[in-house]
Specification:
Layout (H helix, E strand, L loop, with lengths): L4 E3 L14 E3 L11 E6 L8 E3 L5 E3 L5 E6 L1 E3 L4 E4 L8 E6 L3 E8 L8 E10 L2 E2 L12 H8 L4 E6 L6 H14 L4 E7 L4 H9 L4 E4 L12 H15 L6 E6 L9 H8 L3 E7 L3 H11 L5 E3 L6 H11 L12 H13 L7
Parallel strand pairs: 1-6, 6-10, 13-16, 13-17, 14-15, 14-16, 17-18
Antiparallel strand pairs: 2-11, 3-6, 3-11, 4-5, 7-8, 8-10, 9-10, 9-11, 11-12
């Protein structure tokens, strides 16, 4: 009997939907992050049962469905923590994000519904060789060593104190105002756990080109720093070939979480002309500014939702804060960013 596969959005960089493959059960010792695997859904009662397809559309799944996703790691402070390496002897797994990030959840917020549980069926293989996300990443000889140096566009960098601090919402606002000002914009999410919808929303806001860490072959950016650095340089080298004026880049989560946020900031630092910090509360602003060892140009997010929050941010840190959800804030935001872009000069490296 032929199986109908649901391809999750981590497969969007691959040719798995178009080109035949086999499913081969491999010993646990051969597993790695980024491996494409086939799983079968188990208990879905009362669980998060929607998956994200390669085009970004959400689809509801039933028990007994076959999903193709990628092994990976997640460490979300507000939602769930898990890893492929935590799979038990029975090789039971969980759908850690709707995008197809697969591992075993070891810690979960009580406010989050349980994920769909999965049974490992086997690895996606061709001619006896397992298929990994990195198999579909175009590489160049120079990108691994000079990708960040080859990238010469100014960057609007958006960092945060945690997940759900308002980074993607702020990124959309900035993309929109830059498009209205006539710029050709790349929108990118440099770190995080697989979820296509965030970067797709930057396209919805007007970004001419969108990228995220999946395009560099990572199911999540939790990996050794040097592995992430190499992947990011490959991604920057690809962006450097685009005809664009500016990059709006979001570093997901926060710098002290294991998503390589600090590594990302180090790599792109010479190109950053404007830094926006999205903070969950005013007191977090000073902590993250210290962790990143830089003072942001502006604070937004939950910390700036009210005039009281804005006043407290400015009192505690001396940094300007704006509520970007208010239309009245946009002219000043636009003036600040465009002034930085027009006066930016990349330092000699």
């Amino acid at each position: 009997m032929l199986n109908h596969y649901f391809f999750t959005s981590v497969t969007r960089i691959s040719d798995l939907e178009e080109t035949p493959f086999e499913i081969t059960r491999l010993p646990f010792s051969d597993w790695q992050a980024g491996d494409y695997v086939s799983t079968m859904t188990q208990d879905i009662s009362g669980r998060l049962r929607n998956i994200e397809l390669p085009n970004g559309r959400m689809a509801e799944i039933a028990e007994g469905e076959h999903l193709i996703g990628a092994l990976g790691v997640r460490a979300a402070t507000l939602e769930a923590v898990g890893s492929w390496a935590s799979a038990g002897e029975d090789l039971s797994l969980d759908l850690m994000t709707p995008a197809g990030l697969i591992g075993k959840i070891t810690s979960k917020s009580p406010f989050l519904r349980s994920p769909v549980s999965l049974d490992y069926i086997g690895h996606v293989t061709r001619a006896g060789k397992k298929i990994q996300m990195t198999d579909f990443v175009a590489t160049t000889d120079t990108a691994a060593t000079s990708g960040s140096n080859a990238f010469t566009l100014p960057i609007i960098l958006i960092i945060g104190t945690s997940m759900s601090a308002g980074k993607t919402t702020s990124a959309r606002t900035i993309v929109r105002l830059l498009k209205q000002a006539g710029y050709r914009v790349i929108g990118a999410k440099l770190t995080g756990a697989a979820r296509y919808r965030d970067v797709l929303s930057l396209g919805d806001a007007g970004a001419d080109i969108i990228y995220d860490f999946n395009d560099a072959g990572l199911a999540s950016s939790i990996c050794p720093a040097e592995q992430y650095r190499t992947a990011l340089r490959q991604l920057l080298a690809r962006m450097a070939t685009e005809q664009a004026d500016v990059l709006v880049a979001e570093a997901g989560a926060s710098p002290l979480e294991p998503y390589n946020g600090l590594t990302a900031v180090e790599e792109v630092g010479n190109n950053v002309c404007f830094t926006l910090l999205c903070a969950s509360d005013p007191y977090a602003v000073a902590g993250v500014s210290s962790a990143f060892e830089c003072e942001p140009d502006l604070v937004a997010g939950g910390a700036a939702n009210t005039s009281a929050g804005i006043e407290l941010v400015e009192k505690l840190t001396g940094i300007k804060a704006l509520n970007l959800l208010e239309k009245s804030s946009i002219p000043l935001l636009s003036k600040m960013i465009i002034n930085k872009i027009e006066n930016w000069q990349r330092p000699e490296v």
